Amino acid sequence: MLGVIFAAGKGKRLRPLTETRPKVLLPILGKPLVRLHMELMKSIGIDNIVVVVSYLKELVIDRVKSIAEELGVRVDFVDQREELGTGHALKAVVERYEDDMVVTYGDLYIEVDYVSRVLGYAVRKVGNYILGVEVDDVSKYGKLLTDGDTVLKIVEKPSEGGAGTANAGIYVINRWTAKLVENLGLSPRGEYELTDIVSMARGKGQAFKVVRIPSNCWQDIGYPWDILNVVKRELSKNRGKTVRGEVDANATIRGPAIVEEGATIKGSTYIEGPVYIGREVSIGPNSYIRPFTSIEEKAHIGFAVEVKESIILENVHAAHLTYIGDSIVGENTNLGAGTLIANLRFDDKTVKMNIDGKRIDTGRRKMGAVIGGYVKTGVNASIMPGVKVGSYSIIYPGVVVYKDVPPKSIIDRDWR
Asked: From CA 148, how far away is CA 210, in angstroms rounded?
């Protein structure tokens, strides 16, 4: 059995976070998404994994090789080159391998322990299976139309909403069915869709069966706030303290917390769990870290900085007098002294955000900013709720940022 992980996509709706890294390398409590899928493969007895790459492929290859060595699995890479859909991605694999396959979309969040138990059942049967997840609004996903446990077809983002079974993006495909991707035609979206082989397989007597999983062990990460929700879900599972770093005697940690090796919590810092503090993170003195915050490795949260329900990525520096609320701050960003990231509208309505040319409601009453990698803000800069700041941008001192900033921009007081 061969494990296949799709890791080629650009993650356009997650920009600016994916301007500097592929979606599959976004971390959940120190683990990139793709690692969860590699752990899933290993947990069901698959130690031969193929990762399909394209966008920023060098970053994916380097990280995946490191993870493979840690997990003790073999890994190979297939370059999709042109990103023409999931069917095209599998076709690139089928051209090189003739195996029964477990195929996953590597940019999804999964709870490995639960999904592996369900998926292991399907693998032992060696047939064609799709994992389906019960959702409240199936119009956001591919809907599985079924007759009993037989999948008739998949309807992408149906106009009718309501509860239903969504395609969870995890398949077990036998070697004969996998070859059907060679016969796929272009979909109305101009892509080769893996989902189209479901109807093709049924016509050849190789119908897919659905195996259902609950929604609390799976999450499609389509928008930036989905990452905040996933981190909150993961942190909510933690009930105790795991402290491997150094905590000053005058620092306080209340509630569940994970403090990784090399982290330093300095005096008079107050931490309310659940929180995650990564390797070699420095916090304090006099910092306030509030629940459901995740701080990735080598970040520095300094004097009198408050962080609430946010994700701080690697090597971020927020050294003085800063507030970060319900936000995601990209790697290697430097927030100047007094930078404030607001998270609440005056009218108390839910915050909207511009995504791929559309105004999308986040569904969150409190939602701050999404800041790309390598951004610099000057002293006393303010960023309003729902704003996105593109990577490598510079915000001048004292500027109020009230609309999205394109990547590599310089924003001064005269910016309109």
From this structure: 9
Higher pLDDT, 404 or 190: 404
Give the strand pairing for 218-219 and 109-110. antiparallel
Would you say 300 and 264 are in contact if contact means Cβ atoms under 8 Å apart?
Answer: no
- Number of structural domains the chain divides into: 2
Residue with tokens 């239903």: 164
271 and 160, same domain (yes or no) = no
pLDDT attached to residue 94: 83
Q: How far apart are CA 301 and CA 54, in angstroms?
A: 34
φ and ψ at 318, to 5 degrees?
-130, 85
What is the pLDDT at residue 126?
67
What are φ and ψ of residue 127, in 5° steps?
-125, -150
- Confidence at residue 153, expressed as pLDDT on a 0 to 100 scale: 82
Question: Given pLDDT bands bounded at 50, 70 and 90, which one contains residue 192?
Answer: confident
CATH number, position 400: 2.160.10.10
64 vs 34: CA distance, rounded Å: 8
